[in-house]
Amino acid sequence: MTRPAQRSGGARASADRLARLLNLVPYLLARPGIELSEAAADLGVTERQLREDLELLWVCGLPGYGPGDLIDMAFDGDRVTITYDAGIDRPLRLTPDEALALVVALRMLAETPGMANRDAIERALAKIENAAGELADAPVAVRMPGDSDRVEALRGAVQRRRALRITYYTATRDETTERTIDPIRVLMVGGLAYVEAWCRRAESVRMFRADRIDALVELDEPAVAPPQARLHDLSGGIFQPSAELPLVTLRVGRGGRWITEYYPCERVEPGDEVAGADGAGREWLVSLRVTDLDWARRFVLGLGPDVTVVSPPELAEEVRDQAAAALDAYATLPAGTGPAPVGALPGAPPVVVGPASGSPSARNADPAAATGSH
Rounded distance, CA 39 to CA 24, Å? Predict the structure, then answer.
């Protein structure tokens, strides 16, 4: 399995190479017959890397990719000249939809808490809005996910360097606690706002999701993280599974397959073909790591009949026992009262209700919940 850090490094390298290739054609068009060594020095790459880039450019071009559509070049010893640029020197023309998409994306970036280089974003936004004309005034409202007032309060505490007293819901243990924290920074990860802070209760750095902070009070004391406080490396995301965490294997049907896209899974393997109400389908064996089996128990119970626990055995036993307790509670209801919500029954888990696609509740079940990082 590829580690997140490796994937992240590969993505950065690919992005760097794409930017270099996009700059390479206009650079060479302006300098016909330039020596490869001089071009490599200007572009900050080795001559070998430049030759590899040129070989890749040779098979790039307009859709159709026939000989007359590809970028072409001529070599004279160690000198290179672009002889056909496949239209890459044409000015960029944005369609109305493309321009509006860029405006919306830049407005969202400008509203992102803790975003660096905000001046550069606003300058780029102003240029695109000016080029888009009346289109930029389309009635599009941009709001960041979660409670924007809460995020602004967190940002203010970070800027003023003030400690906070918060009431926080911890999804991994399904409990609400009071904590005093020393906020360090506010950031967006996966479309969600977090405050990273020194938690005086845990005596370590923790990540707190903004929409799980039920209440906060800014204290009249400075936020002072101790010298041993270390910020998390989030290049691979909030949840970075390791071999030390418990491995949970589930058998999921068609209705539960969405978890393979929403949660970081270690293995996804096809299982047996099964018949269902909507026709034949395939089961899947899904393995993922969690830090807390109590969270896994609530997660599985919320998924209902689309999921069966394969391992570990203790998780399967806990799910079976709590499901049986919920059924027993239904059986003992007084006559005429009707069924009560599952979350109101003694010993029953809270129901995880999501949109029609089957995705989980945003508050109770998310990839970061499995980490126990807060």
Answer: 9
